[in-house]
């Protein structure tokens, strides 16, 4: 039954659950009295401690105005800042490319007798020999290196570059050493780029022969060295553009043993060369072709890391059977590619070009299938071959070599024969130059290519270094030390995952060690450079048409985020960036790391997976979000207003629903689009201040006077003022850095220069200067010419130059004046009356955080934390992103005169005192408009509040029961259902549904709370399977030991032969092709010279784990999870309470809100029995059924969403047919010495087995 309660409107709801046999007015009035007494006292305490009215008065008397935000205009300002920065990075790469082409064209090679260069692997470093040191050569010059904060504190030298040469490339080969020589002149360009843009990250020039010249110079720290720059995303993307690939893997009965192993590694290696812009289908075949992943049937999927891992797992499980029908298999592949061309509209009036290829991996071909190629791969009367065919012949004893070779030659492809596992990578890599050939042949347009996001810890050249610097006495180690201290006091998995990955290091006879590593997300921009020495005469090239190399640089995603004016966007608003594939490059809910593990889907999280409407269901594609996604993918400009969105925060423990407005536009010159999301209402207003700094020194005051004391901090992710060469200035903290610049402002006054880090406006690049840099609809810049004098001769930045955000600095100084007037000094002493109330709650600290990122705190009366290693600012360093800040602003929308109170989650189960946090939103009002300007609050001991609560609820002489009575179970809950007060201390901080599930369910039915379903599509689930199988030990005889010894010796010998490449003595690869032009005429007419074999190349790849290992006891796999979170419907119970009878499962209870707080008091009639129920907020794995057995399959619906193919791709060139370059066969010769030696080893091994 419902009982009416008289209660004031307030922000905080207290649910008093009490059971009465008769709902008498006297008892109900008592409950109302308890609620009012608690609420009024807490509000009095909050107003007195925070001095909220004084703060509001300060904002008003200092003439702060309130302006309405124009979302579109704000976005334009953000785009201007970000676009200028990105354009400067493009300029740097363009200068490297232009210089490389000019230098290479004019360079004359005369040997290397008097030449030396800094080698990342072979040079002496600070006088110490490296891992791979050759003291018999003078080719490698020594390097002097030192740590540099701009480059992770890695040992570098910013005066010159260094060269890395892959293990499989001979650095003294003429074509390699020649390129290393001429590229040395690029150091001038690297240095000039850095002097004009000191914020530039790593700069690269990767030669087509495999060498990498990188600036600054560094020592190599990966052994064994498997790195090859030609496999990096920025290299492959610039060389090949996007492509559709069908991989055909032979799984017939003949593909047994080593052939099958080679085939699997070959397919995996091909997959590793693909990126997010590529689409792939993998078919295994015998008499017919079948998708290796059943749910990928008759379709292409994007080559994301997650999909690649799914393919690899399926390939490892393939079984061999039957025989091959190549006609059927190729027909199916061609039809699949034809369907893809129709879907994408290739060759239609849109001008879209398709780069398509078939990769065949087999050990033989039954016969000639030219008729299939004629039917399906000849368009426009046979003049167009839309699909390239690459053939990889595996195994040593093979037949039908001519047939499989000419499959490639007839179809603009390449043939490679792979004899052993160690040949796989270099042979697979040969397809890259073939696909890049049309780009090289056109020789005019240089597409500017951007990569998808990737983590720096996945970059092989940095990976080991990043782990090493965490162990040194660097800034990273200091930050980690502070984090570990914070973790003991206030742990947040979300915060930890945003900063660190984790890895278990194992050492022999030592316990496993869990190590933490900072990480960053990066994107790279790259431009291909062409070899201008190619001459086309009489229908032939004088040498092989190839790329000269790729120029590139990295851009940390956080550098983009710093330019997005977060202080103007405001609390609960945010910026996000979406790629041409609909994946988020930047988003507050993008979580690359989960539980310390870098997920396999971190760079392919779709926008529809992080932007969720309130009523969204699992994997349901909401039309409004699809509209937003498609507009951003297509580089459109516009807005979508009033979307009712749900979101989680505070470690996915709290949720809220509010209307949001979205504004979006493209980022010129990139395939990305950028958008801002603003909360409806308060998100559209901001504080307006004038030239506050100028006003200060005009009054004869020094600006820094408002930043006295030690109890204040800045939000360290925001940029206020900074030197370009910040590594030269050793500031102890961001606060010391700010004080330095404030003093500089006070000294220089009008002479202080306010400038942005990228000084030229983006409009200056729109001037007609001979550069076709207008971004087309695909976000590419096609560079046809370049004004080097304009963009490669920028003004150099001196070491004492700096940049500042003038608006942010003025806002910061204004906030400091307001705060200093109320929160003056490091301690605060209240008046006697308020002091007595404060002491009754044992409030120890008060604080305020402003919109400008300033946070200040004061210790109350005699309390201090001088003996503590961490202060309040350390524990609450995220400014407007702290949970208490966000919650106070959201609570203000319900009731402006209220506090948001909370306790740490699961606080009752932890040792030590519990502190409650109370926060109150400060809004400044002007002209009828309110803007959120700050949040003030305080901390007090939970135990004192518990005593106060028990005192208030026991003060009822005429009541039959009270909260001290065993007949009543009393609780206080917050607005998300967490227990603030319970008679069982261990319940503090727990979710109420886990303790009283039936009562919580009854409140849901009565609409007291609302359930908000949060879907996490970036989750990792723990693998609970544990085989637990251990082999039983056996008694070993001496002869058995001897046999094991010889087995070990034999396996080591075989491994030595393989590692030493001695197996190549069994055969000799012919340096010249066996086939002549006469042989070619039997298949197709070519008017060309004999084919030229590509140079040997080898690739290395990043390690990818489908099932991620965090520790030796736990494994995780990607999954979807649902979490049920709860929100109190406070507006519904401002004037009424609610009583629940015992008719349902729950015991009888009544609820009543407490004014001015977000807590609820629950009194349940303990004399009734209840059917035990448990409502959990723990994430639950979503089960979609057995058909969708992998996470990639669950995301398959996203595969059909709109994507924007990038332009700047070249799929064919008329001059390509003038060269016959499609690989060659090899001759096999027997080495009888090795054969006899092998027989001897086998004989000895067999003799030992008989013992």
TrEMBL record:
Keyword Glycoprotein set for record: yes
Show where the VWFA domain sits: 244-435
**Which keywords appear in this protein's UniProt record, sorted alphabetically?**
Calcium, Calcium channel, Calcium transport, Disulfide bond, Glycoprotein, Ion channel, Ion transport, Membrane, Metal-binding, Signal, Transmembrane, Transmembrane helix, Transport, Voltage-gated channel
Checking InterPro entries in the record gives: Ca_channel_alpha-2/delta, VDCC_a2/dsu, VWA_N, VWF_A, vWFA_dom_sf
Q: Which SUPFAM superfamilies does the UniProt record give?
A: vWA-like
Q: Which GO terms describe its molecular function?
A: metal ion binding; voltage-gated calcium channel activity
What domain of life does the UniProt record list for this protein's source? Eukaryota
Query: Matching Pfam families, A to Z?
Result: VGCC_alpha2 (PF08473), VWA_2 (PF13519), VWA_N (PF08399)
Q: Which PROSITE patterns match?
A: VWFA
Membrane topology listed for this record:
Single-pass type I membrane protein
Per UniProt, subcellular location reads as: Membrane
Name the principal localization, coarsely classed. Answer: membrane
| Gene Ontology CC terms, in alphabetical order | voltage-gated calcium channel complex
Signal peptide per UniProt: 1-25
Q: What is this protein called?
A: VWFA domain-containing protein
Origin species: Gryllus longicercus
């Amino acid at each position: 039954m419902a009982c009416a309660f008289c209660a004031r409107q307030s922000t905080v709801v207290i649910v008093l659950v009490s059971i009465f046999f008769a709902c008498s007015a006297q008892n109900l009035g008592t409950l109302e009295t308890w609620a009012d007494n608690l609420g009024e006292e807490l509000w009095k305490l909050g107003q007195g401690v925070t001095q909220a009215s004084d703060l509001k008065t300060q904002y008003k008397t200092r003439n702060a105005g309130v302006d309405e935000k124009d979302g579109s205009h704000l976005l334009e300002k953000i785009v201007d800042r970000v676009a200028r920065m990105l354009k400067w990075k493009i300029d740097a790469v363009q200068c490297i490319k232009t210089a490389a082409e000019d230098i290479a064209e004019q360079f004359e090679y005369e040997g290397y007798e008097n030449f030396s260069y800094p080698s990342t692997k072979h040079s002496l470093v600070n006088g110490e020999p490296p891992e791979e040191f050759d003291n018999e050569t003078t080719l490698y010059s020594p390097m002097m290196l030192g740590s540099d904060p701009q480059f992770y504190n890695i040992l570098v030298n910013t005066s010159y570059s260094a060269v890395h040469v892959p293990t499989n490339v001979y650095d003294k080969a003429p074509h390699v050493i020649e390129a290393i020589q001429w590229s040395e002149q690029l150091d001038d360009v690297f240095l000039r780029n850095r002097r004009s843009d000191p914020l530039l990250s790593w700069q690269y020039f990767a030669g087509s022969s495999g060498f990498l010249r990188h600036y600054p110079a560094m020592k190599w720290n990966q052994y064994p060295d498997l790195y090859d720059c030609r496999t990096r995303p920025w290299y492959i993307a610039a060389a090949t553009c996007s492509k559709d690939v069908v991989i055909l893997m032979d799984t017939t009965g003949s593909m047994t043993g080593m052939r099958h192993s080679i085939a699997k590694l070959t397919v995996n290696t091909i997959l590793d060369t693909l990126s997010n812009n590529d689409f792939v289908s993998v078919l295994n075949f015998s008499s017919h072709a079948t998708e290796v992943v059943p749910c990928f049937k008759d379709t292409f999927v994007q080559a994301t890391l997650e999909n690649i891992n799914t393919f690899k797992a399926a390939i490892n499980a393939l079984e061999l059977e039957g025989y091959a029908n190549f006609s059927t298999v190729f027909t199916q592949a061609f039809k699949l590619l034809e369907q893809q061309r129709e879907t994408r509209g290739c060759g239609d009036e849109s001008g879209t070009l398709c780069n398509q290829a078939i990769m065949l991996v087999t050990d033989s071909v039954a016969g000639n299938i030219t008729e299939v190629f004629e039917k399906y791969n000849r368009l426009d009367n046979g003049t167009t071959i839309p699909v390239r065919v690459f053939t990889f012949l595996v195994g040593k004893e093979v037949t039908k070599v001519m047939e499989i070779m000419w499959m490639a030659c007839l179809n603009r492809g390449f043939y490679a024969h792979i004899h052993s596992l160690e040949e796989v990578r270099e042979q697979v890599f040969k397809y890259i130059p073939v696909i890049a050939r049309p780009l090289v042949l056109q020789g005019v347009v240089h597409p500017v290519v951007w990569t998808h996001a990737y983590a720096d810890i996945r970059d092989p050249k940095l990976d080991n270094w990043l782990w090493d610097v965490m162990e040194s006495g660097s800034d990273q180690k200091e930050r980690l030390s502070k984090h570990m201290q914070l973790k003991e006091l206030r742990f947040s998995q979300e915060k930890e995952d945003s900063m660190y990955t984790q890895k278990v290091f194992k050492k022999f006879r030592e316990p496993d060690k869990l190590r933490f590593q900072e990480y960053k997300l990066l994107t790279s921009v790259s431009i291909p450079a062409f070899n201008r020495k190619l001459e086309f005469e009489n229908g032939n090239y004088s040498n092989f048409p190839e790329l000269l190399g790729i120029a590139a640089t990295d851009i940390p995603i956080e550098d983009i985020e710093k330019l997005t004016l977060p202080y103007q966007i405001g609390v609960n608003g945010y910026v996000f960036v979406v790629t041409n594939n609909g994946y988020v490059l930047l988003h507050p809910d993008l979580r690359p790391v989960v539980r310390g593990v870098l997920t396999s889907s971190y760079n392919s999280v779709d926008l529809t997976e992080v932007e969720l409407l309130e009523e969204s269901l699992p994997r349901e594609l909401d039309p409004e979000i699809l509209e937003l996604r498609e507009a951003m993918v297509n580089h459109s400009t516009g807005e979508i207003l009033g979307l009712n969105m749900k979101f989680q925060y505070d470690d996915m423990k709290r949720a809220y629903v509010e209307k949001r407005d979205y504004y979006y536009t493209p980022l010129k010159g990139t395939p990305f689009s950028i958008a801002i999301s603003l909360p409806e209402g308060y998100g559209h207003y901001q504080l307006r201040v004038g030239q506050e700094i100028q006003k200060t020194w005009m009054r004869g005051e020094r600006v820094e006077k408002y930043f006295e004391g030690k109890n204040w901090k800045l939000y360290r992710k925001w940029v206020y003022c900074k030197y370009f060469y910040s590594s030269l200035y050793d500031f102890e903290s961001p606060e010391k850095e700010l004080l330095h610049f404030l003093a500089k402002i006070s000294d220089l006054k009008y002479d202080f220069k306010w400038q942005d880090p990228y000084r030229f406006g983006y409009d200056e690049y729109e001037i007609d200067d001979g550069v076709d840099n207008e971004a087309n609809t695909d976000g590419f810049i096609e560079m046809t010419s370049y004004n080097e004098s304009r963009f490669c001769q920028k003004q150099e930045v001196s070491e004492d130059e700096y940049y500042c955000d003038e608006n942010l600095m003025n806002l910061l100084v204004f906030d400091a004046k307001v705060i200093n007037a109320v929160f003056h000094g490091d301690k605060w002493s209240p008046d006697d009356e308020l002091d007595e109330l404060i002491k009754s709650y044992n409030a120890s600290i008060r604080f305020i955080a402003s919109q400008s990122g300033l946070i200040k705190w004061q210790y109350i009366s005699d309390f201090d934390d001088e003996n503590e290693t961490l202060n309040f600012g350390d524990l609450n360093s995220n400014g407007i992103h702290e949970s208490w800040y966000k919650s106070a602003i959201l609570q203000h929308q319900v009731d402006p005169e209220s506090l948001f109170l909370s306790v740490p989650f699961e606080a009752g189960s932890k040792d030590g005192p519990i502190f409650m946090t109370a926060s109150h939103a400060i809004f400044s009002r002007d002209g009828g408009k309110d803007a959120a300007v700050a949040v003030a609050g305080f901390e007090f001991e939970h135990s004192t509040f518990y005593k106060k609560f028990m005192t208030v609820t026991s003060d009822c002489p005429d009541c039959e029961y009270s909260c001290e009575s065993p007949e009543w179970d009393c609780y206080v809950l917050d607005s998300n259902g967490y227990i603030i007060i319970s008679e069982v201390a261990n319940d503090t901080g727990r979710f109420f549904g886990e303790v009283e599930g039936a009562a919580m369910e009854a409140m849901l039915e009565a609409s007291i709370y609302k359930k908000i379903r949060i879907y996490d599509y970036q989750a990792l689930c723990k693998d609970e399977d544990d085989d637990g199988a251990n082999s039983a030990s056996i008694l070993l005889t001496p002869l058995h030991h001897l046999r094991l010894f010889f087995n070990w010796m034999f396996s080591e010998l075989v491994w030595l032969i393989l590692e030493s490449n001695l197996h190549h003595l069994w055969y000799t690869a012919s340096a010249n092709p066996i086939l002549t032009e006469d042989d070619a005429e039997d298949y197709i007419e070519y008017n060309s010279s004999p084919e030229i074999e590509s140079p040997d190349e080898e690739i290395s790849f990043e390690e990818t784990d489908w099932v991620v290992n965090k520790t030796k006891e736990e494994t995780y796999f990607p999954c979807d999870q649902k979490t049920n979170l709860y929100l109190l419907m406070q507006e519904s119970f401002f004037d009424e309470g609610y009583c629940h009878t015992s008719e349902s499962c729950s015991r009888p209870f009544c609820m009543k809100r407490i004014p001015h707080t977000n807590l609820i008091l629950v009194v349940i009639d303990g004399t009734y029995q209840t059917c035990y129920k448990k409502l959990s907020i723990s994430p639950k794995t979503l089960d979609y059924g057995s058909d969708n057995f992998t996470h990639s399959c669950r995301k398959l619906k996203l595969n059909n969403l709109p994507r924007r193919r990038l332009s700047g791709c070249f799929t064919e060139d008329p001059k390509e047919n003038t060269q016959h370059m499609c690989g060659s066969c090899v001759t096999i010769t027997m080495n009888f010495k090795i054969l006899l030696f092998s027989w001897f080893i086998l004989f000895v091994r067999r003799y030992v087995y008989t013992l």
